[in-house]
Amino acid sequence: MPQGRVKRCAGLLAPLLLAACTVIPPASGPRPLPPARPGGPAVAPPAVTPPPPPNAVALGVAPGPDLATLPLAGLRPAAALRTFQESCRALLVRTDQSGLTRPDDWRPACSAAATWPAADAAGFFVTWFEAARVSDGRSYVTGYYEPEIAGTRTAQPGFAVPVYRLPPDLVRAWPFETPFEQRVGQPPLGRFDPTGRFVPYYDRGQIEDGALAGQGLEIGWAADPAELFFLQVQGSGRLIGPDGTVIRIGFAGQNGHPYTGIGAVLRDRGLIGTGPGQYPGSMQGIMAYIREHPEDGKALMRLNRSYVFFREVTGDGPVGALNVPIRAQTSLAADPLMVPLGAPVLLSEGDRPEINGLWVAQDTGGAIKGANRFDSFWGAGPTARVIAGGMAARGNALIFLPKGTLARLAGTAPAVPAPRRK
Description:
- The protein is globular, with a radius of gyration of 23 Å.
- Helix 2 (77-91) crosses helix 4 and helix 8 packs across helix 9 (294-303).
- The chain has a 6-stranded mixed β-barrel.
- With 422 residues, it is α+β, with helices and mostly antiparallel strands.
- The protein contains 11 helices and 17 strands.
- The chain folds into 2 domains: 56-144 and 320-410, Beta Barrel (Barwin-like endoglucanases); 146-266 and 297-312, CATH 2.40.240.50.
- GO terms for molecular function: hydrolase activity, hydrolyzing O-glycosyl compounds; peptidoglycan lytic transglycosylase activity.
- One of its GO terms (biological process) is peptidoglycan turnover.
- Residues 1-19 form the signal peptide.
- This is peptidoglycan lytic exotransglycosylase.
- Keywords: Cell wall biogenesis/degradation, Lyase, Signal.
């Protein structure tokens, strides 16, 4: 929720779904060449190139309405303009995986944004952008927030749950027994055991039982394991000490085990719903179950073997995938194959009215995949927690692209920047 999440996991707290996280690099070693036949020379098999995943261009992009016809003035344009300004330093150098834009396409709008008056923010978007609809434009939006949980920098009575930084023995490599022809894409995450064998990394239960204890990996210590669990789902947050000290932490990596949404587990067990004895399908409902059933709740959380590691971060907000701060009620997590990260996005006709407005795609998330799938950021504090914890909105989405982009994609004209505002 991405460097941060908030490289997040785009921490999704929609009913019954919780986000998975993406991870960090390290590399694999050289691979031995198998013999062509018994006694023959070693010959490398043909290279296997997986097909590229579909992006926005492959799915289809259509022009949206003329922005001058939309009521942008009432859709938080000033906040979106400020957030777009902060995104420009990444937009101008980042490769757009969606296939929609090139870095230079954004240069005129970014130059203008630097001095554009906030009072005419709606005019900025009308002047420099055109609307595009990816696929059918029908959006599904969940929510995430920056949790604030009780925590301290050192272990002390009442604060005994470790918050770990990335372990140095967490690496990517191919297990020796993996056939050469299956070594396609990124190697898995794991560790080398004392015998030199590459094995999966410790899972949540093993880590909670002390697999990493005594290695000096603790950034801090939390008071409540359930609160830390949900902070891991979000991918970033704040540890608040009894004296008011704040330690801001962000996503650094994940242990390589698949993510299991515990809300879905409760649903499958018939414990989520609206009937007698059932819990609401929101973060609050899941937390209530854990509180009321401590032992079963602990076992439930351990079903999610994925474990998130953190780094300490500084600045005035959690950092998203563009390595710039994300902003409450303005920043979205999106699939970078479908939306240029840094692009403005207009969400409208949502069945949750608070979702309607101008946003900027600045983050990613493991569960935020596909066209018009977004995760909305709501900031920190109790109100943000409630909104994000129950957010699940359907509506429509328009991506704002630099003027001339659609003509270039259609092959009817080169990209032509809008005229400079005098």
